[in-house]
Structure formats: structure tokens, C-alpha cells
């Protein structure tokens, strides 16, 4: 995962920083931050899916993200 995606992922998913704040911190548009977050999540879920012990967790997280995008 690229450093830019990793930074956005950690700030948002682990630290709870909103996308707008991350955009200010990294000097990028909010849409760019959200795009990086989208692709970072996909990479994390794909890596988790390769581990049988984590696959069900990855599927739940992916389903949760997809439900959130609809609403």
C-alpha cells in the first residue's frame, strides 16, 4: 500500500479523523482523501481475505462499508 493511502487509512480508521480534517493535514482535496481511503480499504480487505481466520471479518467489514455507501 502506498504511503499516501496508508496515512489516510490510519488517520481515518484508527484515529477517527474526519476526511475533511485529513484533507487539510495532507494538503489534498477531500475527494482525493476519500478515494485514497476507498482503495486503502480494498487493499486491507483483500489482504484479510487471504487469511482464512480473517476472511469472515473482512466480509463483514466490506458489507458494512457497502451499506454505508448506499445511505
From TrEMBL:
Domain RNA polymerase sigma factor 70 region 4 type: 1-43
UniProt name for this protein: RNA polymerase sigma-70 factor, ECF subfamily
GO biological process: DNA-templated transcription initiation
One example GO MF annotation: DNA binding
SUPFAM superfamilies associated with the record: Sigma3 and sigma4 domains of RNA polymerase sigma factors
